[in-house]
Amino acid sequence: MEYRRLGKSGLKVSALSLGSWVTFGKQVDMKDAKALLQTAYDAGVNFFDNAEGYEAGESEKIMGDAISALGLQRDTFAVSSKVFWGGEKPTQLGLSAKHVRDACDHALQRLKVDYLDLFFCHRPDIDTPIEETVRAMHQLVLQGKILYWGTSEWNAQQITEAHRVARQEHLTPPTMEQPQYNLFTREKVEADYRPLYEQYGLGTTIWSPLASGLLTGKYLDGIPDDSRLNLPGYEWLRDNLLSEKGQSNLEKVRQLHPLAQELSISLTHLSLAWCLKNPNVSTVILGASRLSQLEDNLGALDALPKLDDGVMARIDEIMGNRPEAPERFGQ
After folding, report:
1. Which residue, 44, 134, 175, 198, has most beta carbons within 10 Å?
2. Strands 3-5 and 47-49: what pairing?
3. Lowest-pLDDT choice from 16-30, 56-70, 131-145, 196-210
4. Model confidence over 63-82: pLDDT tens digits?
5. Bigger pLDDT: 212 or 129?
6. Overall pTM > 0.90
7. Does residue 50 contact residue 79 with C-beta atoms inside 8 Å?
8. For residue 53, how far is the Cα from the chain centroid?
């Protein structure tokens, strides 16, 4: 396993990590969760990602129970939660000081830990001043309930404002951002956040590296029955695939497939390794509903040496979506 600093912080996280979105509490029960966590942990994974909004907290309960049952030593792994979608009532939503505190306390209970290593603002909240949210996160740091806080799917201007407030008010600034990043979704990570890596040492814990399975190639011949695209509540994923843009993306997957074969690697490994090639990516969050999926995904690190500059250029040519920037990935 490779370990990378979380931005400019001193925390080192595994290049590949394990997340629970869609899986824990939806496709994965306690028994499966234990197997997935143990396999990931044994492979060197030291970061497990979660959120209050994942299956209304059930995902955190399953992860917490599994970690407790496995007896993982607390100083050997990092675990996260996110705050925004905690329930239907006004005080259970958004990034108010009250909900930030309540969400943290609930996450600690469900995950069965004394502190969160990482705590994310799951989306920006237009109804709450950024200063209120920054101050609430700072208080949690002072109380020892969280070590690092960050954002998820905030834009560069919002992250910059959070840093401005923190600097002006002598509060703890955000350390990391959790954006979607894959071969189809590149603008934020490669262009919008570019100044933030140098100015603030922004770390990134990227999600959906396989574009909800599209980049595995499993949808080239239709939608498998056991796909997450057939899960209740995730019809939007299916609609995205069947849309005109989705079908265009599927055609690009068909073009990537021969390149992966030429390199003697799977399309899955090519896609994950491509994300890892970006030095501004602190960790790539994997999602798996089956142990075999996780075991395969963990092998993506072996594909990294095969993605040289020539291969990366060929991938850019196939995708045709490289953001306009003077240099690749800030190098």
Report:
1. 134
2. unpaired
3. 16-30
4. 999 999 999 999 999 999 99
5. 129
6. yes
7. yes
8. 14
Alpha-carbon distance of 148 to 28, in angstroms, equals: 28
The residues carrying an active-site annotation are 54
Rounded to 10 deg, the angle between the 309-319 and 267-276 helix axes is 110
For residue 254, give both structure tokens: 């068909």
Q: What CATH superfamily classification does 3-215+274-303 receive?
A: NADP-dependent oxidoreductase domain (3.20.20.100)
Query: What residue has token string 């990366």?
Result: 312
Distances (CA, A) of 194 to 36, 161, 181, 189, 329: 34, 16, 14, 7, 8
* Cα(165)–Cα(188) distance, integer angstroms: 22
Provide long-range contacts, Cβ within 8 A and 24+ apart, for 151-154: 151/120, 151/121, 151/124, 151/176, 151/177, 151/178, 152/82, 152/120, 152/121, 152/122, 152/123, 152/177, 152/178, 152/179, 153/122, 153/123, 153/124, 153/178, 153/179, 153/180, 154/121, 154/123, 154/124
Distance CA 175, CA 264 (A): 37
Which pLDDT band, with edges at 50, 70 and 90, does 245 fall under? confident
User: Would you state the pLDDT for residue 329?
Assistant: 45
At 305, the amino acid letter reads P
Residue appearing with tokens 């001193």: 10
